[in-house]
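Q: Here's a chain of 192 amino acids. Please give me its 3D structure as C-alpha cells.
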Amino acid sequence: MTSAHERKKQPEQVRRRLLDCAASLAVETGLASLTIQAVADAADVTKGGLFHHFASKEKLIEGVFTDLLDKLDAEIDAILAADPVVPGRFTRAYVDSAIRLMESKAPSPWGALSISMMTDPALRRLWSDWYRARLARHADTDSAPMLEIVRYAADGIWLSDLCDMDPALRMDRAVLRDRLIRMTTEPERSPA
C-alpha cells in the first residue's frame, strides 16, 4: 500500500507533474474551469502538496506560463544555433517558432494562456519581460525596423489563429512563413 507518507519526496518531479497536469487540464477545460483540486487529483498529490509548490491558482498558472516560455526559449535557441546567417536570426527563429506552434496539431495551453495574457497583468508582465530580454539579447542583430515589422506580423498571425479566423480567409502558413523569412534577409528594404 502506497501513501503520501511512504513515498520518497521528489519535489522537482512533483512540481513537474503539477505543471504538466495543469497545462493538460487548461487545454481540456480552459483556464476559467481549472481548479486546484482537479490539478492535485490529476497529479496524485494533496492540495497541501500543490500549495507547497504554488501558493495559489494564479501562481500555478504563472508557473505553467513560465514553463512554456522556457520551452519556447529552448526551441528558439535551437533554431538560432542552426541558422548561419546572423542578421535577423532571432526574428527568423521567432517567426518559425510561432508558425510551427500554430501548425502543430498537438493540444497546447498556449491558446488559453495567450488570451488570458490580454487581461492578466502578471501573465502580460511575464511575456513582456521575456520578449524585452530576448530583444535586448539580440539588439545587435535584430533591431532593424523591417525586422520589428516582421515580428509584429508574426504576432498578428498568432492572434488571428487564436481567434479562429475563417480558414478560407487564412493564407497558407508555409507561404506566409517563407514570405516573412525572406523579409528578414533584407531588413532595410521595404516590403514588396
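Q: Can you summarize the key feature?
A: The radius of gyration is 19 Å.
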